[in-house]
Structure formats: C-alpha cells, structure tokens
C-alpha cells in the first residue's frame, strides 16, 4: 500500500441520501400503461457533498463538512434484472440558507459542492471565496460564479448555461464525458471504459482533482488523475466511493 500525504479540507455544500429501490418488473399496471415493480430490496448511499466527502476520505484527506440539516432523498426505482432505472422520486424539505460561523482552524483547501438546493446562495459563495486564504474548488449548478478567484469544475451542459462573460475564464475545468476535460484551451483525454452509470462521477472527479492538486501544485498535473478516478466510478452502478485498491491504481 502506497503511503499518501494527508491534507485537511473544508467541504461545504448540499448533501442527500441516494436510495435505490430494486425490484422485478413482470407485468404492466392495469390502471395505467406503466410497469409494476415488485420490490425486492433497498440500498442507500451518501450523495452530493456526502459523496465528495467519502471520496476525499478515500485519499486519506481529513474533511470538515458543513451541510444542511434538512432532508433530501433521491429515490430511484430499478428493475434489477437489467439494472434499468424506471423512475426517480425526489423528496426535498425546504432548505434553510447557510448562515453559521466558519471553523477557526487551518485548511489546505476549500471545496464547495453546490447542487443549488438552497443551502448556498450566490452571495454566500462569493463571501466564502473572499474569506478563505488558499485554493478554492467549486462544483456548482449556478450560472454566476467567482471564476476569477476559484477553480470552477463544471460539466459541458453547465458550461453552456454559464453567463457569457464567464466562459473565457482560465479557471474553468469543463468535464465532457468521453470527450475528456477542457482546461485553458487544452483537452485532457478521458480514459475510455464501458460506462455503466455516471451518477456521482463528477463528485469522484472533484475529490481526486483536489487531492492531486494539493499533492502536485497544478491543475494540469491533477486532471489526468481525476480522469482516472472518474473512469473507475462510471464502471459501477449507483453512487460509487473509491476503494483502497482503486486509489492505489490511480496513484500508480
């Protein structure tokens, strides 16, 4: 097992429970043209910022997490014979915006995992970036972001919705699935694997990006490792957390 350098990270963002209701579809509902799922089992996993936290843990990073108290559940109904999702039901309490005090301690990086559920307002994100003295990584679905002061990881769909004046920022890290990652005019090819499920792959990418940036000091050096991590995640069904074996494979 390879010895890894430990870092401390402050992680702030929305979190949820990913719930997978597995069953078998054997007939159609006589009341409507929809399948009937006969439930066989239920699995739960930690999602959104909690998934980022778990994957940061995989790299032996010490994580302080600030997230909402309210409940968010993404409940997916799966025909387990084919691993085919037939329905997703989201359960969301009204999320109160974050107004708490910040920890009074040193962190190597600030990571913001913003799914735009209401916990982090745009103003609060700008305040956090201004407050933190060190590298900041943001994964957000918002269209107005502090691109001049933080590394912004977004996918190509989120990039298309970004405010036009922000699209030329040198701090944008745009993930494009099988087409790799764009950063400062350069494309970093993805690892070609059989894609099973992309759920949570962005969180895995972000976690690896943070670790290898802290380890090597540049985004250019970190992206290939983050691509490796994402490639592992998409070959598994559901929200995936990197194993010790995965991390050693990425590092080597």
Radius of gyration, in angstroms, nearest whole number: 19 Å
Fraction of residues in helices? 25-40%
Beta-strand content bin: 25-35%
* Low-confidence regions: none
Largest sheet: number of strands, sense, barrel closure: 8 strands, mixed
**What is the topology, as strand order, of the major beta sheet?**
4-1-7-8-9-10-11-12
Q: How many β-strand stretches?
A: 12
Query: Termini separation (Å)?
Result: 11 Å
Q: Mean pLDDT, as a whole number?
A: 93
Please state the overall shape, judged from the principal axes of the Cα atoms. globular
Topology order in helix (H) and strand (E) letters: EEEHEEEEHEEHEEEHHH
The class by helix and strand makeup works out as alpha/beta
| Number of alpha- plus pi-helical segments | 6
Descriptive report:
By secondary structure, the chain is α/β, with parallel strands linked by helices. 26% of the residues lie in helices and 33% in strands. Strands 4-1-7-8-9-10-11-12 form an 8-stranded mixed β-sheet. Helix 1 (49-58) crosses helix 4 (201-216), helix 4 (201-216) runs antiparallel to helix 5 and helix 5 packs antiparallel against helix 6. The longest helix is centred in the last third of the chain and has 16 residues, at 201-216. The termini are close together.
């Amino acid at each position: 097992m390879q010895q890894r350098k430990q870092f401390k990270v402050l992680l702030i963002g929305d979190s949820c429970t990913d719930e997978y209701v597995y069953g078998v579809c054997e007939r159609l509902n006589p009341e409507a043209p929809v399948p009937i799922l006969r439930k066989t089992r239920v699995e739960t996993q930690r999602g959104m910022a909690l998934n980022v936290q778990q994957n940061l843990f995989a790299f032996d990073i010490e994580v302080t997490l600030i997230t909402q108290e309210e409940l968010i559940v993404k409940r997916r109904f799966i025909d387990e014979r084919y691993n085919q999702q037939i329905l997703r039901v989201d359960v969301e309490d009204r999320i109160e915006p974050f107004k708490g005090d910040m920890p009074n301690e040193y962190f190597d990086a600030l990571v913001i995992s913003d799914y735009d559920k209401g916990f982090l307002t745009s103003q609060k994100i700008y305040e956090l970036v201004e407050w933190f003295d060190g590298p900041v990584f943001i994964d957000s679905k918002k269209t107005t972001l502090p691109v001049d002061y933080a590394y912004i990881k977004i996918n190509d769909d989120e990039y298309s919705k970004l405010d036009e004046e922000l699209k030329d920022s040198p701090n944008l890290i745009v993930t494009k699935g099988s087409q790799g990652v764009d950063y400062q005019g350069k494309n970093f090819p993805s690892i070609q694997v059989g894609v099973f499920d992309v759920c949570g792959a962005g969180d895995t990418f972000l976690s690896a990006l943070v670790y290898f940036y802290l380890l090597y000091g540049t985004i250019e050096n970190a992206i290939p490792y983050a691509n490796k991590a994402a490639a592992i995640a998409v070959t598994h069904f559901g929200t995936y957390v990197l194993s010790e074996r995965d991390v050693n494979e990425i590092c080597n």
